[in-house]
């Protein structure tokens, strides 16, 4: 009786943990479903199954819960880390990532998608801090019937990197050139995110007429590709997919230092002039 109650409590706790920590919604649902099946089996059949390790007897449902839950929680418990590019002083760059979450592509308003990718960027502590520090903006690499991706999310003539610090395109080439150096394939947390991605765009960053964001069938890219398929594979009527997010240029360190020195100097001179004016009165 005591062991049965203990099993139920452990399983209930494991279900709650799985729901809150599992890496994706599918994993959360799968974990909860399996655990509830195990719990139901133990309750309905009224029998105590156990696996013995030496003198310690572990109830079978608890053991099964551990086996089911631990693999599902590994992506959440041991997350990857965003790696910023190692660029020379004086070199600005942009960051591109695949959103962890998915969204529909039914809106013809580009700002809907810009807001979505901005919210996704702010879920990452590293990117949120970078956004605040440098006043970054985030834009979807996507086209609607009225706005091209290359206009909405320009690469601004600077190098672009993914969230593992891997070069996607140098300043001279840009990302709207048909191919990129490495796949985008990482989300805002630095985890691999191999999936199809809504773009509504051609390989050159223009809108795909009739298949842009907001149309019935939308062009999608493959985040695991570095050829033109990274942005344009085919069209789909899929209801939800991730998006690509591109930052505005991250200022180079030297510019920030100079700006800080300039601001400090201006403030110092302003205060000095005020003191001089007060002394002469």
Summarize the structure.
The longest helix has 28 residues, at 253-280. The chain has helices spanning 2-21, 25-44, 60-77, 110-121, 125-134, 149-152, 253-280; strands at residues 50-53, 56-59, 93-98, 138-140, 159-161, 167-169, 196-198, 218-222, 234-236, 244-247.
Describe the structure.
The protein is of the alpha+beta class and 281 residues long. The protein is 40% helix and 14% strand. It starts with a helix and ends with a helix.
Strand content: 5-15%
Radius of gyration: 26 Å
Strand tally is 10
Biggest beta sheet attributes: 5 strands, mixed
- 3D shape: globular
The ordered H/E elements are HHEEHEHHEHEEEEEEH
Widest sheet, order of strands: 4-10-3-5-6
Which structural category do the helix and sheet elements fall into?
alpha+beta
Termini separation: 91 Å
Mean pLDDT: 78
- Which spans have pLDDT < 50 for at least 5 consecutive residues? 15-30, 41-58, 73-78, 254-262
Number of helices: 7
What proportion of the residues is helical, as a percent range?
Answer: 25-40%
Characteristics:
three-stranded antiparallel beta sheet, 40% helix, globular
């Amino acid at each position: 009786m005591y062991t049965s109650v203990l099993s139920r409590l452990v399983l209930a706790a494991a279900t709650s943990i799985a729901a809150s920590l599992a890496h994706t919604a599918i994993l959360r649902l799968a974990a909860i479903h399996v655990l509830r099946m195990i719990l139901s089996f133990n309750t309905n059949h009224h029998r105590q199954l156990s696996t013995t390790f030496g003198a310690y007897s572990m109830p079978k449902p608890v053991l099964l819960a551990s086996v089911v839950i631990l693999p599902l929680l590994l992506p959440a418990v041991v997350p990857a880390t965003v790696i910023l590019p190692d660029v020379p002083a004086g070199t600005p760059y942009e960051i591109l990532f695949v959103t962890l979450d998915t969204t529909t592509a039914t809106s013809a308003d580009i700002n809907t998608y810009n807001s979505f990718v901005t919210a996704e960027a702010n879920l990452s502590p590293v990117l949120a801090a970078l956004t605040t520090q440098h006043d970054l903006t985030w834009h979807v690499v996507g086209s609607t019937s009225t706005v091209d991706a290359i206009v909405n999310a320009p690469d601004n003539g600077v190098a672009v990197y993914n969230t593992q610090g891997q070069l996607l395109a140098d300043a001279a080439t840009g990302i709207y050139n048909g191919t990129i150096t490495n796949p985008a394939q990482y989300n805002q947390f630095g985890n691999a995110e191999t999936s199809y991605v809504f773009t509504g765009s051609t390989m050159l960053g223009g809108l795909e007429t009739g298949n842009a964001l907001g149309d019935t069938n939308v062009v999608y890219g493959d985040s695991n590709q570095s050829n033109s398929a990274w942005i344009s594979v085919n069209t789909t009527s899929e209801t939800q997919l991730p998006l690509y997010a591109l930052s505005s240029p991250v200022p180079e360190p030297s510019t920030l230092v100079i700006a800080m020195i300039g601001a400090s100097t201006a403030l110092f001179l302003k205060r000095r002039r005020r003191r001089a004016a007060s002394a002469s009165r």
